[in-house]
Amino acid sequence: MSLRIVVTVKYVPDATGDRHFADDLTVDRDDVDGLLSELDEYAVEQALQISENSDDDVEVTVLTVGPEDAKDALRKALSMGADKAIHVEDDDLHGTDAIGTSLVLAKAVEKAGYDLVVSGMASTDGTMGVVPALLAERLGVPQVTLLSEVSVEGGVVKGRRDGDAATEQLQASLPAVVSVTDQSGEARYPSFKGIMAAKKKPVQSWDLSDLDIDEDEVGLENAYTVVESAAERPARSAGTIVKDEGEGGKQLAEFLAGQKFI
Amino acid sequence: MAEVLVYVDHVDGAVRKPTLELLTLARRVGEPVAVALGAGAGDTAAALAEHGAVKVLTHEAAEYADYLVVPKVDALQAAVAAVSPAAVLVPSSAEGKEIAARLALRLGSGIITDAVDLEAGDEGPVATQSVFAAAFTTKSRVSKGTPVITVKPNSAAVEAAPAAGAVEALSVTFSAAATGTKVTSRTPRESTGRPELTEAAIVVSGGRGVNGAENFAIIEALADSLGAAVGASRAAVDAGWYPHTNQVGQTGKSVSPQLYIASGISGAIQHRAGMQTSKTIVAINKDAEAPIFELVDYGVVGDLFDVVPQLTEEVKSRKG
Ligand SMILES: Cc1cc2nc3c(=O)[nH]c(=O)nc-3n(C[C@H](O)[C@H](O)[C@H](O)COP(=O)(O)OP(=O)(O)OC[C@H]3O[C@@H](n4cnc5c(N)ncnc54)[C@H](O)[C@@H]3O)c2cc1C
Ligand SMILES: Nc1ncnc2c1ncn2[C@@H]1O[C@H](COP(=O)(O)O)[C@@H](O)[C@H]1O
């Protein structure tokens, strides 16, 4: 038996950098250093663990849709231990929204061939957390999402979902789309050996024509949503800061009473 | 006036507060028609009518509890077909976002998630979002299809606006995909007796500075004196001091209370992402340089083990 896992990873602007918008109100990806979304490291980690715990012949492919630099994200995932990588890149993709991105990912996943897709819980820039559900809808396979624990055995994926109101145990037959949370277990650091090995691993590049996607199905012009304006949140006016000299709690209570919280 | 579908989040018929807030926003855009699914759906009608629902479409079936997400998408799709609404509003929970996304795809529509405000516009509803850890505020709208928008808790006030709230049975045919992901067991979260974190008017949070699970008692004591919910930073959660359900931040809950009190929390960007839109922010931290102080309306530089218990005592005595 063999198991083909595709991990979707996104290249995002560093959250600790000065993120902002470009003139066309898309996320500016030029001025801030990019990296593999930290939340997708958890997806790579779980895919590698599924692979390590399996008696089957498992192949882990990492897939990204993004600009030239997004190769860095693939490189990182390969150095963690993924086997190969696919980079979907096309100038017409600029400004594609979640609906469009899910189309590109779905076509790429199908072309690559898969039994299991593993995604992160959300991208750290868009933070929508909807692409895995969209991908499952497009592929017509079960979504087993937001898992803090996941395992695959005998063609069945199981996992634990810690929801708002309850903790649920989920189960579905493969093929399926899974997403994992940052509660699923620390992601490994690439070893020196892993980093060296990654340099020799194959990275395929596909553009829209490779995926039979028309340019009018993606991109900013064809997005399903329009950002009309983006304004920097005004800096909060400087607050009162006091040093505790023994009365700090009382002073704070005074403030809260003044604000009618007490 | 056009109708607006509102997806009802309820527990056995008890409508959760964010849904009532959605009704307030829905009324700005059209006439709210609520969709309540699963066990107790019919019991939601009185509360929904009280807050402006002209109609309540209900459907009860075991599938809603036994399978993940898709049965609810099937039902909402049926409701859209029945009503042809001007927009569909869904509470922005993790599940709500997944339901909304799949619905939007089926409708050929765009989706906006995590709106914090909604207004009527010439070309359809305009949603306000708070992005990049709340460093920017954007206004967006859906440009294709029926707008599907998820809205965060505490984005609007709950308002009484009595309406007919006529209950109608929704007819739903489940898709083949509906039974794809089975829920094999469900363990409801135990109630702490405190307000729901995302819905609370006041949130009291502790971080690494709390330094131990047992010390969270002083955070809880302050919370209880104020009738507040308890939150925690990821550092405190990762250390095992407090449950993950209480984590505030990018990968935890996003809160927007009237008052947020952070104790022993440095204010990392990922934590700020979940609390920066709070109306009033207060911090207690012994490091005067901690970034959290950039956000505060009132900050105390000091040891939380001195300041928090004193504050709790003072609150109690003032409340009598
Ligand atoms: C992808 C990703 C997602 C993340 N998601 C989240 C998230 O959802 N939520 C979140 O919170 N974090 C999140 N983080 C982690 C975040 O980056 C920080 O590491 C975390 O918020 C730090 O928690 P803290 O402020 O409690 O700890 P620290 O940064 O260690 O700060 C502790 C503070 O306590 C103060 N202190 C210590 N002792 C005392 C005392 N006795 N009295 C008063 N003050 C004291 C210190 O001065 C310090 O400022 C995420 C990180 C990543 C990479
Ligand atoms: N451009 C992309 N390329 C590859 N994977 C993506 C991309 N965008 C989103 N994803 C995947 O979908 C998950 C959720 O993203 P989002 O819905 O944008 O928050 C991410 O954690 C990734 O696994």
UniProtKB/TrEMBL annotation, chain B:
Gene3D superfamilies: HUPs, TPP-binding domain
Cofactor (UniProt): FAD
InterPro entries assigned to the protein according to its UniProt record, in alphabetical order: DHS-like_NAD/FAD-binding_dom, ETF_a/b_N, ETF_a/FixB, ETF_asu_C, ETF_asu_C_CS, Rossmann-like_a/b/a_fold
Subunit and partners: Heterodimer of an alpha and a beta subunit.
Listed name of the protein: Electron transfer flavoprotein subunit alpha/FixB family protein
Family listed: Belongs to the ETF alpha-subunit/FixB family.
One matching Pfam family: ETF
Domain of life: Bacteria
UniProt keywords, alphabetically: Electron transport, FAD, Flavoprotein, Transport
Domain Electron transfer flavoprotein alpha/beta-subunit N-terminal positions: 4-183
Statement: the UniProt record of this protein carries the keyword Transport: yes
